Amino acid sequence: MTDPTAFETIEFLVRDHVATLTLDRPDKLNSFNQRMANEVAEVWRRTRDDEEIRVAIVQANGDRAFCTGIDVGEGKWWDHEPIFNQEDPGVLLGPKAHRVWKPVIAALHGMVAGGAMYFVNEADFSICSESTVFFDPHANAGIVSALEPMGMLARGVPYGDVMRWALLGSEERITAHTALRLGLVTEVVPDDQLHSRAAELADEIAARRPQAIQGTVRAMWEARDLPPSVAERHGMSYTHLGNAGADGDSRTNKRAPRTR
Fold this sequence. Notes:
Blueprint: E1 10-15, E2 18-23, H1 34-49, E3 55-60, E4 65-67, H2 90-93, E5 104-108, E6 111-113, H3 117-121, E7 125-129, E8 133-135, H4 138-141, H5 147-154, H6 159-167, E9 174-175, H7 176-182, E10 187-189, H8 194-206, H9 210-223, H10 228-243
Parallel strand pairs: 2-3, 3-5, 4-6, 5-7, 6-8, 7-10
Antiparallel strand pairs: 1-2, 8-9
Helix pairs in contact: 5-6, 9-10
């Protein structure tokens, strides 16, 4: 188990092959600053390189918000870089930017605003509590909203719904059940069951053969950027790599069926 006091802005625990990253600036609505971005990046690198970790959960402390984007009080920290060397903070915050091919589950609650979508867009799937609301404050501040809604489009959220989110500011909010309908989340749970449900799903995935799970994640993530014929070739190569040595039996390696 990893010491949760090793960081200032997040908590990081590893238990039974599951890593849990918890955003821990509740007094700032879990908005991210440079320190949080760097700490999150370190956690994603650890998650990628530690073979004992098979699944990751990203969640947040506090009652009001999962994350509300960048800490506007502290502002951008990359302006001193030459303009063409500047990187979007999503490069630090997103697991896939760090080549984490282990499944990531986002457990969302409260306000999920603006740059919070960096976490959501690179999770493999998300669940949320009933009180969750999604909105984008960029328009209120008079600044362009581009990278976060682009990620939503890549997830398959309909263009019109993405543009309503990006253009109508914080006045219009997507509810948990609308998010479920749009495909932003895969399940809505009571507020007091969010973290336990995420842990339950993570534990179930962690019990599977990791080579099969990670090969599936990488094949599917990379397929989003590839023409179908190239994606099929990539998928076949990951099938050959990930299936080597597999000796399981799907008739016995399963639990009682359930529906959702």
